[in-house]
Recover the amino acids of this structure.
């Protein structure tokens, strides 16, 4: 017992205790820096760049601070960091070959952030999913769909497949297919639709709404009514537009084909 106590006492010399205190202080300071510095830098980047760039800078800066602090602490304890860095490099290469899909997603994530085809908060459609972009990470893009479902799209898929950014431009167009009976006056129907667009506060005056004749058969005329709307009002107008137009036709005495 006495021998064990002497061994412990011999190990914890004054210099080693001093080094241990330095390591603890270094770790505490590093932890504080990793929690406080990246958010501040990210806010500065967001003022001049995009939310995507700010998120990337925040993560990379946080990881860098943690790695530097850990390596410094190990050096303070007398560990040969060079050997560890070499081993880590070999391990990284081995993992790269073993996880080619992850590496591809990582590289694709860098290209996506550099391309800036969409940002956090945009509405996009890809692979049958439409939702709000919650995050653009190095491995994947996270979406929240309209029915509040979380969707994770790998970056490699985002880079290889076509996708639509529904929030890229400030206005959007809504196309409404309509049918009237063959005996109705097309010009009168067009005037009614133009008046409807002029009186609806959600329809934009510019670009002007259009009514196009698309096809006909023995019983009906097929039309397409197109209006422009501000992006933030798109969902509201699209939900009510068809029913509102049909109600206006009925009120004006425009005959609709049977079943409409």
């Amino acid at each position: 017992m006495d021998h064990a106590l002497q061994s412990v006492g011999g190990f914890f010399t004054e210099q080693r205790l001093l080094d241990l205190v330095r390591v603890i202080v270094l770790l505490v300071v590093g932890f504080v820096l990793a929690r406080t510095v990246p958010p501040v830098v990210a806010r500065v980047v967001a003022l001049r760049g995009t939310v995507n760039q700010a998120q990337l800078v925040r993560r990379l800066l946080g990881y860098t601070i943690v790695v530097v602090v850990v390596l410094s602490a190990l050096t303070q304890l007398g560990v040969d960091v060079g050997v560890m860095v070499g081993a880590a490099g070999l391990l990284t290469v081995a993992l790269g070959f073993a996880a080619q899909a992850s590496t591809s997603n990582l590289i694709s994530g860098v290209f996506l952030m550099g391309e800036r085809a969409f940002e956090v908060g945009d509405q996009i459609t890809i692979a049958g999913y439409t939702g709000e972009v919650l995050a653009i990470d190095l491995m994947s893009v996270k979406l929240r769909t309209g029915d509040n479902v979380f969707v994770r799209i790998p970056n490699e898929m985002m880079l290889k497949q076509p996708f639509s950014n529904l929030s890229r431009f400030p206005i959007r167009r809504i196309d409404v297919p309509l049918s009237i009976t063959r005996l109705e006056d097309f010009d009168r129907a067009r005037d009614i639709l133009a008046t409807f667009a002029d009186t609806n506060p959600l329809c934009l005056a510019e670009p002007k709404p259009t009514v196009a004749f698309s096809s006909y058969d023995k019983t009906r005329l097929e039309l397409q009514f197109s209006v422009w709307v501000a992006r933030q009002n798109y969902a509201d107008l699209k939900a009510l537009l068809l029913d509102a137009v049909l109600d206006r036709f009925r009120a004006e005495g425009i005959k609709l084909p049977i079943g409409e």
User: Anything to note?
Assistant: Strands lie at 123-126, 129-136, 140-145, 150-154, 164-165, 171-181, 210-216, 220-230. The first strand starts at residue 123 and ends at 126. The domain at 171-251 is CATH 3.30.70.100 (Alpha-Beta Plaits).
